[in-house]
Amino acid sequence: MKTPIESKYCAAITRRFFAIFYDSLLLFAVLFIAAALVYPLTHGEISFAFRVYLLLVCFFYFAWPWLHGGQTLGMKVWRLQLQSISGQPLSWQQTFVRFLTAMVSWLVFGLGFFWAIVDKQHRTWHDRVSDTCVVLLLNRN
């Protein structure tokens, strides 16, 4: 079991945005492939079910790596890791709540992300709601 996170280790928002940019490029490719797989079934129509399917693909793109090591590919490149505040392993519930709250954070013009600038612990809305924190992994040289 990990020890609870100290606030001084929460990552800066600029590093997070670089990881988000990297992940968005990878996610675009994943969504392209996911859409191509079901294209023959949908005949090119964008239905409600198709949108839900793509949303689930997005969720699993983030949730699976968060639950298995705490890092998406973009987070690995920028040496970031998602951790639970309590030090316990992340749960499906935490990843789901984090994912939904992050969408809300984007929908209000990124305000939920930029909240980390004024927050003393550098936590975003989705960090706070899901009891998680993105930490910078230090070099082990």
Description:
- It is a single chain.
- With 141 residues, the chain is mainly alpha-helical.
- The protein has one domain (7-136).
- It contains six helices and two strands, in the order αααβαααβ.
- The chain has helices spanning 13-42, 48-67, 73-77, 92-107, 111-118, 125-130, and strands at residues 80-84, 132-136.
- A two-stranded antiparallel ribbon has the order 1-2.
- It starts with 12 loop residues before the first helix and ends in a 5-residue tail after the last strand.
Brief synopsis:
The protein is mainly α and 141 residues long. It contains 6 helices and 2 strands.
Helix share bin: 55-70%
* Tally of domains: 1
Q: How many DSSP E strands?
A: 2
Class by alpha and beta content: mainly alpha
Order of helices and strands: HHHEHHHE
User: What is the 3D form?
Assistant: globular
Please identify the oligomeric state.
single chain
Biggest sheet strand order reads: 1-2
Number of helices: 6
Query: Taking all residues together, what is the mean pLDDT?
Result: 92
Layout: helices, strands, pairs:
Blueprint: H1 13-42, H2 48-67, H3 73-77, E1 80-84, H4 92-107, H5 111-118, H6 125-130, E2 132-136
Antiparallel strand pairs: 1-2
